[in-house]
C-alpha cells in the first residue's frame, strides 16, 4: 500500500466522535485539573511529549492530527510527529505538542489511547509480514475487537504492511477493496461446499475473486479438487481454516493439497491459509517451504498488546521541567517533523 | 457494585452506532454471503452459538442485547444468554440466537467482537480483584485504549468487580462517580506538590475526595507528610505512582511511608498505589502485608487479550449441523436464560 | 490375560534355536574363558545373579527356563527366579543360577539378552496399560522390530497386560487370536473404503470382528458413517490412524466422530485409535474423557529401551565373592522361587 | 571395514528363517488382506516405498534383498534400494518395490522391521564413532539384545563403522575376528587378576591379543602395572570397566593409569575403556584429551531406538495413489539403485 | 556441645587484637565522621541496630561482647543481643547498642564483620548438621580460610552443632579435643598405609582415636581390611576421602566397604567420609541409607557466604530517625536480652 | 596499582602472627603426623604443590613467602611461585616447595588458607573490574568480613585491580590512601545532608576529596544539587547508595541525576554508585551507558568463595609419588619462578 501523505485532507472515517470532543472519554482528573487551573488563572504554554513503551511501528498519528486540528488555537500551536508506519523505540518521542495547556489538557487520555492501540495493531501486523518473508498477509481480525474500533484496527494492520483486510470500514479507510469471499455460514446453510462455490460464482460480480473454503464438510483435498473441477479457470484459490480439533492447517497439509491440485491440473489455484496464525506459526510454514499463497491473520493482530505511551510535560512557560525519574526538557529526536 | 438486571431499559451509552448498524464494521464476506443467499432465495431459521476461548468473566451481553433488539424480527426470534459478570469456560456457549439468518448474518463480526473485547477486560479486572484479596481496585486504563472504547472498557472493569474507574463515560455507564483527583500535570504546571494540593482543596466541591500525588518532585514520604500537615483531616489519601526509573512503588516503600505518616499522627490518610500493577505484583503487596489502601490498575486491564469467541451454526431449519471439528446440534448449557 | 503357570510344558515357540545352543550368539570372550578354565582343570560350582537396571516388569523367564533345562546337569543345578509379569526393581535379583560354571558360562550373553529385551517390552506395555486406565490396549508393534523377535515382543506385551497383539506368532505364543482386520493397503488397492469394508465382510469368517479403517481417503466421520450404514449391526468398530501430517488422531476428533456416529444411530460401533500413541498421549485421551474404545500401540512398545541386566558371580565353590563395587555373596530376595 | 558389494552372494547368516517365510511373523491383517483380494480376484502391480522416520544410517538392505529374492516372481519384479551404510533422511525412500501385490504383501511387516531395527543400531554406532573422533569403537552390545538378533545387531554396528564386535555370529557376518578377551568371570573364578592374565597368556593362541581386565579386585593402576610386569611385551592392553558404584571410568582415571604405566615403562600397553559409554560420555573423553586407545560400547548401540519405517503404497496398476496426508505417486530419490 | 553461657568470663582466644582496637580495620570514613563530630562538639546518645540479610544461625556475639566491654563507658551503655546459636531472620535485630556515638562509632565495621562472617559459618554448619539427620558432622574447614580466622570459623561451626573440628585453636575455643588423626602426607612419606597406621598406633597416646585413611594407594576396601587386621580392636575407624578423579566417595562405596568389613568380622570399625561434602550430597548418603558413621565437611562451611549485616542508626538523642527506606525508631524483637 | 616486586622487603602488615607460627591454626593431624615421623626418625626432603580449584587471580603469595622465609632452613629450601595478580587455572601449580618435611608440615593448613582466601577475593575483584570496562572500582568490603582479615581482603581487592579500598589497614598494605568520605551515620546524627557536607568541608584537610552521600533524607537529585550549590567547585562527587526498599540505584537514576546536575551547571561533580553491586549489575550500568564515575563494591568481593587449593606431595626423597587419582611427580608450569 502506498502510504498517504499526512499533509493532505483527512478522510471522513478519521473524524473524531462527539464523545471524545466533549471530553467524556477523558480521565475525570483532567477535568478537575483544568477547573483548578482556570480558577487559579493559570494557563501557561506547555510542551508535552508522547513516548512508546517498546520497539514497534507507529500508527494513530493521522487520527491524532485530526483531533489536534480541531482543538488547538491556530495561531499558537506547534505539533511535531513521526509518520504512521515509522519504526519507533523507547526513549524517543513520537508526538510533541506545544500549546496553551487548557487547549489540549482534556485530550491527553484520548491521544495516548489512539497511539497505543493503533501502534499495537500495526506492530503486530508488521511482525507477521516479516515472518511471512514475502508471502502476502491479510488482516482477518475484525471479529476479534469491539466493532467501534474495527476500522482503526484494520487501517493499522495495513499501515503495518498487510496487503488488505476483511472489514468494509477498514478497507475503505485504507482505500482498498475488502478481502475474503466465502464464510463457513454459506456452506453450512447451503449444505454443500460445491453448491456454495457455484452459487458464489453465479451471483458475484466478476471483480470479486472466487476463493472457496474447502474444510467444512469433507477432506480438504477432496473438496478442493471438486470445486476446481466445477469452477475451472475461474477459481482463484481455496482457503483452508481447518479446525484445531482436526489438527489445524499444517505445512504438510498445504504441501499435500498443493500436490494433489497440481496432479489434477489445477496449478493456477492459490492456497489461502487462516486459523490461529502468528509469527511463530508463519515461520513454521516459511521455513519448511510449505507452498502457501496467502496468510490470513486474525487474533494475533486484533489482540495485540497496545504499545503503551507515556506522556510527559517537559516544559512549562519555556522552562525545562520533569517529574522525578525523567530528564527535564525536550528529548531530541531528529525524525520528528512539524505537522501543524 | 450492584449488578443491574439486564431486563431493564438499556442506557444511552450502550446504543449501537450507525456504522455498526449499516454493516460497515462487518467482514465483507458476510455482505457477500447474504447477497448470494438472497439471490438463491434461501433464508432458513438458523441457530448460532458463541463460545469463549478460555475461562474468564463474561461481558458485552448488555450491548449485544441492544443490537439484537434492534435487528431481529420480534415475532420470530429467540435469544439465550448468560449474564454480564458470569464465569464462563470453553465448551459452553454464552450466547445463542435462533432467527432467520438474513436478520443477523451481518452482525456476527460485531457480536463476536463486543463479547471478546469486553470479556477480555472484565476477566483481567477480576484477576486483579482476586489478587487484591479484599483491598479495593480502581480501573486506571482509559489512557491505554482507543478513546471510542474507553466506556466499554471501564464498564467491563466494573463488571469484573473494580470499585470504580477514572473515565467520565465508563463511570456513567456503570452509574458511579469517577475516581482519581490529581494529575502529575497539575503539580508540574503549578511547580509544587503542596501548592497543587491546596489549590485542589480550595476549588473542588466537598464531595470530591482529596487525594494528593506525592511522587512528583521530592521524596514520597517527605511530600506525603508535608501535604498531610497542610490539609490535615481533609486529606483523604496520598497516591504514589513512582516512576520505574526510581524503582517503582514497592511493598517496602508503602510500609515506610505508612510508618512515617503514622509516626507523624496521620493514620487517617489512605495510601493509593498505581503504576504498572498486575495480579502478580498485587500479590507481592498482599503477601508481604504491605499496608496499601487502594490499588489502581491501568495497562493490565486495558491491554487484556480479548477472550476470542468462536461462532458456530449448529442448526439449519431445525436440523443439527456443524463444520468438521465441531459436534452438530445445540450444546447444552443450563446457565443460559432467555433474554429476548 | 490369564497368566500361564511356568511350571507347565514349554510351548514350541519358546524352543531355543541352534545358533544360541552352539554358542554362536555369545560374546567370544566366554568361549575363551571356558577354554582357559578347561585347560587349567577348573570347574567350580558358581552362583550367578541377574539384576535389572530399572523398575519395571519381568519377562523372558519362560524362555530362560527353556534354555537352562536343556543345558544344566540335572542332578547338580539350582535355579531360582521371579515370574514373567512380576514387578522388579534395581538391587533385587530376578534370576539366580547355582551350577558348575562350565555348564552355563557360554549362555550368560543369551540369558541377559532375553531378559533385557523382553522385560523392556513388557514394561513399556504396562506403562501404556496403566495410562489407559481400564480402556483395553493392543500391541501393534510387529512392524517395528526385527522379524525374528516379533513373537517374543508381542508375548512380552501381553505379559505386560495388553489384551492382544497383531502378529500371528506372538498371538499364538500367548494363546490368543490376533487383533486388527484391515490394512491401508486393502483400501488403497480397492480404491475405496466402503468397497474394502464390504469385501472384508463378504470374505471373512464370522468370528473375525469387522473393524474398518476410516482415514484413508476422506474425512474420518464421513467414512465412518458410510461404512456403518453399509455394515449396520455387523460393524464392530472403526479404526482411526490419521496421519500426523493431518494432525494425527486427537481427543477432539474421537469425540466428534463418536457424536456423529451416535447422532446417526450407530452407538454400537467402537472407536479404535492408533498412530504414535505413548503413555503421555494416552493420558491425554483419558484425562479429557475422549470416548476411545481401544488403544493400539506400536513403536512405544516395540522400541522400548531394554531393561539392561547385570550378571554378577556371587559365590565360587561356596565362598562369597564379588568384583569391586558389588557386595560379595547372595543378595536376598524373598520373591525368588525355585524353578529348576 | 571394507563395505561388501551387495550384488554378490548373500552369506548364510542372512538366510531368512522359516517363521518369516511362512508369514508367522506378519501382522494377521495382512493375511486377511491377501485372502480378501484373492477372493475378489484382485492382484494388481503395486509400488510400495519405505521411508525412515529420522536421519541416520541405513542397514537391513542385504537381508531384505535375501527375502525379496526368494519371494518375488523373477520376471515381474523391480526393487530399488540404497546401500547398507548410506546416510538417510525423512522424506526420501530407502527401498522401493514394484511387483504383484500378492507376492510381497505378507512381508511388509518383516521388511519394515528389518530396516527399522538394523538402521537403528547402525545409526547409534555411527554416532559413537563420530564422537570418538578417530579412536576405534568396538560393539559390546551382544548381552543387551535378544540372542536371535545378536548377529544382525553386531553386523549393523560394523556397518555403522565399529571396527569389530564381541559376538561370534556378528563377527562372522561381517567377516571379522571377534574382539574382547577376558571376562570378569575368569578373574572371579581364578580369584586373582594376575593368575587369570597369565593363564590366558598360557592357553590362548598367539593371534588372540592379550587384553587384561584390571578393575576386578584392586586399584586399576596397581593391577595394570602388575599384569604388565608379568606379561611384558606380550600385553597388548588393559581394559577398565570400573563399576559405577566406584565412579565408573573417568577421563582422569585413564589419564592417571596412562601416566603410571608410562612411568613404569609400559608405554606400549593400550587402554580399553568400557562401561555405560554413549556419544556424550565419549565426547567427554575426547574433549579432555584423555588417552583412551579403544572405546567399547554396549547398551547405547544395542538399545538404540529403531529408525521406524513408514511403508506407503504409491501406485496401483500404474496410477499414483496415496492415503490422506501423503503425496500420491513415487517420491524422487536419485540415490536409489536397482538391486533386483 | 553444651552452649556456654555468655555472661561468664570471655576466653582468651576471643580477645580483641590491637589492630581492631586502634581502628585500623575500620573504614576510614568512620575516622573522618568521628573527627568532624568532635570538631563540631557533637556526641549524642545513639541507638544502632544490626540486622541479618537472611535466615540462619547467629554467631559472633561472644566476640562482639568482648569488644564492647572494652570500649563502651560502663555507666552509660546498654547492649541487647540474641545468643550465639540462635535462629535469626531478616527484619529482626540481633544486636542493639545504646551509647554515646563517639564510644563505638569506630567499631561498626568490625562488629558487622564479626557477626557476618561467624553467622555465615554457623549457618552453613547447621545446614549440614540438619542434612545429616543425626549422623555426627565434623568441621574440616581450617585449610580453606585465612589462618587468622581459623579459630573463629571452627568455633562457629561448633556453635552450628558440629561435634568437633580439626584445628587446634578452634577446638580450644570450643573446649573440645581436635578431631582427625592421619594425613595423606603421613601415608605418602611412609610409602604404605599399613606402615603409617601401625606407626600411628605405636606413637600416639591412647586417648587419640585410631582412624586410618584408606584411599591413598590401593582399593579402599582392601586397605581397610588390611589395617583392621593389623590394629584389630584398637582401630576406631577408617576415613575415605577418595579423589574426585576416582569418583569421590559415593553412597555405594560406603555400603560396599561396610559390607566387606562386616563380612571380615570388623563391624566395630566406623567409616568416616570426607571430600567435597555439602548438604545436598549429605542428603544423598542419608536418603540412600548409606552406612556412614561420621561426615567431615570442609569447603562448604569455610566458604559460606557471610550473613551480611545492615547496621542502622534508629535513635539520636532519644528521637526516632532513619534513612530513607527504613522505618524510624527501634525495631521490636522480644528475643533480645540485655547483655551489658 | 603498580605491582610490587616480591623480592623486596616484606611490609609489616604481612608479618605472620604468633598463633600461626606456633601451629595453633593448623589441623591437629599435622601435629600428630610430625610427632610420628619424628619418633620414627623420618624427615625426607619432600616436594609439595598447591593447585587452585578454578580459574582466577592469584593472591597470598607475598604472605606465604613471609611465612616460608621464617620457617624453612635457609640452606636446604627451594620455593617456586607465581606472582600475586597472575592469572591461574586448575591443573597448574601456583606454589611449589622443596624442603625437609618437618620444616613446613605444620604450615600446610595456613598456606592453603592464605592462598584460597586471598585468591578468592582477588578473583572477585577482577570480575568487577572487567565488568566495569574502564570505570574505576573501589572495594567497600571491610564491613562484610571478620576484622582480622580486613587488611588481606582489601589488599587482595587491589591486587585484583580495584583502584582503592575503604579500610585503613588494607589501604596501608597496598600503599594507598583510603577511599570514601562520608557515612550515613554523620548525616543521621547531624540531621541534614547539607549540614553534614559543609561540616565535612570545614574540618577535613584539603587532600581529602569532598564526596557527599545524597540519599539519606530526601530525593537524590534534590540533595545532590543542594550540596553542589553549597560546596561549588570543591565538591568532588556525590555518592548514591539508595536502599533496595527504594529500588536501589538504577542506571536510569544515575542518568537523571547526571542530567539534572549538568542542567544546574555542575558537570564537574562525579557520581559514585554503591549498594549491592556485582559484575552482572555493573554490566547493566555499562551496557546502558549510564554515566557512573566510580563503582563501590562490598559484599561481592568480601563474600567471594575462596579459590580452594589442593596441596599434594609429589616427590619424597627425589622419588615421584602421588595418592590415587593424581599423577605422580612434579607438574610442569613454566610460569613458576623461584622466589626462595
Detailed description of the structure:
The structure is a homohexamer. The first copy, chain A, has two domains: about 140 residues, nicotinate phosphoribosyltransferase; about 180 residues, Alpha-Beta Barrel (TIM Barrel), CATH 3.20.20. With about 350 residues, chain A is an alpha/beta fold. Chain A is about 40% helix and about 15% strand. The N terminus of chain A is likely disordered. In chain A, helix 5 runs parallel beside helix 12. Chains in contact: A-B, A-C, A-D, A-F, B-C, B-E, B-F, C-D, C-E, D-E, D-F, E-F. At the A-B interface, helix 2, helix 5, helix 6, helix 7 and helix 8 of A face helix 2, helix 5, helix 6, helix 7 and helix 8 of B.
Short note summarizing the structure:
Six copies of one chain form a homohexamer. With 340 residues, the first copy, chain A, is α/β, with parallel strands linked by helices.
Mean pLDDT of chain A: 94
User: Mind summarizing the main beta sheet of chain A?
Assistant: 6 strands, antiparallel
Query: Which class do the helix and strand fractions of chain A yield?
Result: alpha/beta
Query: What is CATH's topology name of the largest domain in chain A?
Result: TIM Barrel
Based on CA inertia axes, which overall geometry of chain A fits? elongated
